[in-house]
Protein: WD repeat and HMG-box DNA-binding protein 1
Amino acid sequence: MMGQCQLLGKSHSSQVLHPFISLIDSCKLHCLHFSSWDSSKEWIVDMPQNEDIEAVCLGLGWAAAATSAMLLRLFTIGGVQKEVFCLPGPIVSMAGHGEQLFIIYHRGTGFDGDQCLGVQLLELGKKKKQILHGDPLPLTRKSYLVWVGFSAEGTPCYVDSEGIVRMLNRGLGNTWTPICNTREHCKGKSDHYWVVGIHENPQQLRCIPCKGSRFPPTLPRPAVAILSFKLPYCQIATEKGQMEEQFWRSIVFHNHLDYLAKNGYEYEESTKNQAVKEQQELLMKMLALSCKLDREFRCVELADLMTQNAVNLAIKYASRSRRLMLAQRLSELAVEKAAELAATQVEKKEEEDFRKELNAGYSNIAAEWSQSRLKNQVEEDTEDSGEADDKEEKPEIHKHGQNPFSKNADSSDVPAIKSGAVTSSNQGRVNPFKVSASSKEPATSVNSARSTNILDSMNKSSKKSLALNRATNNEKSPVIKPLLPKPKSKQASAASYFQKRTSQVDKTEDVKEENPQNSSSETPAMCPQNTENQRPKTGFQMWLEENRSSILSDNPDFSDEADIIKEGMIRFRVLSAEERKAWASKAKGGTTSDGAEAKKRKRMVDESHETENQKEKAKENLNLPKKQKPLDLSTNQKLSAFAFKQE
Structure:
């Protein structure tokens, strides 16, 4: 058994140096890993107490050991223990090929000299799955299992003691099909063939002839014989039986191509095309034979196995043979096949579209959920802002009665009055505490000036106007000085306050309208400062700008700026010290000249600024009213006495 497992491990490997498994003792597993790239080429694993190894096999990157405890232990070729699972019965034999593990065990006790064996076929790749779930293993009556293995293409096969070789037919629900009988090739009754390998393309059965024994001799080295496959079809001697056997044998021995394509393995398309061509030729020959025998119904059955092109050829053959009924039947069959082909194509396309939509749906679920969530959040924010606006409007109505000029009045407590409620000073006195009807309406936009006070805006505008006047004029503008302070009533003081403030606001607005170029001229004045703050270029940067084209021409595959800079640094370091100093001095000279130009530009801007300010100052002096002459002392005394008498 140990020799058989070693032989299977060597003959079904795609590696040049395959691991070698041996049993030092029935409770120790010894592996020699020749293709290991480290210094340790072997490893040993001891089995638990009272557990012996009964069968071993190798696969692609894994090793399996079946024990007397009806357990199957999986290992990596490096010695890492993997899965352990139970067997339904005592182990008989195992075989491995690639990712496939072929297990045969006793299902129970056989009757009348027959064996009762079960078979499991597992795939131990990334997607582990079981192909055969303990199905009964078919054997010839009163025979036993002799050889278990895989074909070179990876199809499970086994041989019984009667010389029947069976192969797994994946195209017929994983059933077993007899493909050869080695006893037919034996000359004597005591002669046998020991199977060494099975090849599906080309169809070859490699065996060692054993004269008078079941096992081949070791010395001298035995010769290998090649046997042909033959399925046990009826009437092999006739032309019809031979073509049928050839057709179905071609089908069975090319099922591995579909298996390889399904599992993502590479194979030659020419092999499959050649097989299909041979099968269609055999079908056409059988159809012609049936036509000669006046078996038109059989011709339609054979045409059902053909492809669309072959059916068209059959229709031509039937029409030339003057078999109109057969041609009509075949044309109907061709229409059905065309409809089926179109339906299958539509189904495949729909399935592909469904998968694409499904994948796109999974990718868009998060985006749609986030969009809906954002929409709900925006709606909630708008509702909350609307409620807050309603709450803000109510206290504002009650605050209109407060004095806006009191010391304790904050900017938030000042009543909100729209700019439309305040008129200019030339329209006469205006009641500042009057509430317009439009202020009671709810605000329609967030940016409305409802929540701000007109007095605050006046203060801000006056501050801005003062800042502009100070920036443009070094001297203060002439202001009419008041006379001796007189006590005034609150209403009069408020009216005068509004008149003064509004006149200042109008004046600042006029100044802005007359000089729109003032603001535009201030922005470019900042540009020289920004240019002065920029870092000066180094000598390497200037050298790189001039030599960038040569670097790109020498290295056209450079697409990243980092690669260009790296190559430039290497070339710059190769330069002599004098050249590098020259580039550094050149960079310093460039920066100084740039600084001088920036200062010159700034000086020119300042001069133009001064000329504009002088023009504005002259215009303001022309627009200002004439100064009033101060009153005499006697008149001042009279007025003060009059005010005292009135009080």
